[in-house]
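Table 4 source record.
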Amino acid sequence: MFIHKISSRKASLPLLLTIFLLPVLASLAEAASVPSPSDAPLELALLTQPNGAVMTADTINPEGLTTPSLWWAKENSENKLLDNWIAYPTNEEEPARVDLIVNQQIWNLLDYLERYDFVNRLGSSARKDGYNVRVFNYQQNLLATYTCNFVTSPTSCRIQMNNQNRLRLLRSL
């Protein structure tokens, strides 16, 4: 009888591991399908001297709306936090991306969840136009990213926040 209990425990261990590890493995597989954020440097000079393919918050298209359409977000709810952006079109090396430049003083006032919400809302908006998002301050510190795999259907995306943001959340708990 003792031997029977041991063999049934051996059979249940793989089952338990599967039950507990399946969500973790699924999450890892999904994260693996999303490319890493661009490691291209932030080009702040483009804010004052944009080239023909790059759009900023100050770029006006006389033919109609340009993408990504972040002007509404800047002029309304994000006016104090979102200071400017630089949108880069798709090229041979990487998909289109938009670099958001935030007001560091306002960003510092937000807790982790408020920052995450900001990144998620603007990332979701940019995703509709096929853009990945990176969030910077004027010191060119990368604060967060919203990166998608636009080849998969449905599009899979991942938000990454820098560790400083997480530490603030843990201290507040």
